[in-house]
Each structure stands twice: as C-alpha cells, then as structure tokens.
Specification:
The chain is mainly beta. The protein has strands at residues 13-17, 24-28, 35-36, 43-48, 51-54, 57-62. Bound molecules: zinc ion.
Length: 63
C-alpha cells in the first residue's frame, strides 16, 4: 500500500532518513533548492515548479 504524505501549506521541518546511507537528517519542507544528504550527497528533496518533493523517507514531522 502506498501512503501519501499530505503537505500542508505551513512550513515544517522533517526528520528524514537517506534511502542510500540511512543517515538521519532534518530538512525543511519548503526548501527552494535541492537538499542533499550531508553524508553521501544523495538528493533528499528538490523543488520542482514551486513544489518541494521529498525523496527521502520521512520518519518524523517536527513543529
Ligand atoms: Zn546519504
């Protein structure tokens, strides 16, 4: 089953796990640029047409 993360219009910080190296990282859900994993450089989130697309696994929503 596929779960969709509903993104509200609020800005939030997300705790994600890099699918490549399992590094935990806090990212901003309204990032306007690409967010890379600090360990392996894998792209965790990117912005396409004004929308942030989270490519990592979200483990927790903060705030
Ligand atoms: Zn990584």
């Amino acid at each position: 089953m596929r779960r969709t993360i509903h993104q509200k219009k609020e800005s939030k910080f997300l705790k994600v796990i890099c699918p490549k190296c399992k590094n935990e990282q806090i990212i901003f859900n309204k990032a306007s640029t690409k967010v890379k994993c600090l360990v392996c450089g894998n792209i965790l989130a990117e912005n396409t047409g004004g929308k942030s697309i989270i490519k990592a696994k979200i483990v927790k929503v903060l705030g």
